[in-house]
Amino acid sequence: MMMRQVTTVADKVADKRNIGDYKRRLLAAKYELRRNLYKTLWQDPNLPSDLRDKYRHKLSRLPRNSSFTRVRNRCIFSSHFSNFFYYLFLNINEVDCQLGYR
Questions:
Q1: 3.40.50.12280, 1.10.287.1480, 2.10.50.10, 3.20.20.150: which CATH number matches 9-71?
Q2: What is the pTM of this model?
């Protein structure tokens, strides 16, 4: 797949969005186990309430960007997130351009 050159301001902004989203993905992968452990222990009704509060506090102390809900699937060329093919990492408009329809 051929990468295009970054020339316009919009392309630079799109690259910043992709970089930010990539960093969020790395952070989410790094804290995934810890987040799931704290969440499970916090929601366990068999534990004492002070212990559950401790794990709820630990969960709240994790970085917000380490949650997978903050990650957006974006096109690798235009950073658009709507009409996104997750298996291609492309927006429908970019697919049309690559196929010569636009």
A1: 1.10.287.1480
A2: 0.62
